[in-house]
Amino acid sequence: MSSFETITIDVQSIKVTVRKKGSGPPLLFLHGAFGYEGWPTFLDLLSEHYTVYAPIHPGFLESEGIEKINDLYDLVLFNLDLVDCLALNDPHIVGHYFEAMVAAEIASVCSHNIGKLVMANPAGFWIDDDPGLDYFIVPDNEIRKHLLAHPEDSRYSDIFPEIDDESEQDQRSIDKVKALSTVAKFLWPVPDKGLSKRISRIRCETLVITSECDPIVPVSHGEKASSLIGNSIHMTLSEVGHLALLEDPETFAASIVDFLR
Question: What is the CATH number of domain 5-260?
Answer without folding.
Answer: 3.40.50.1820
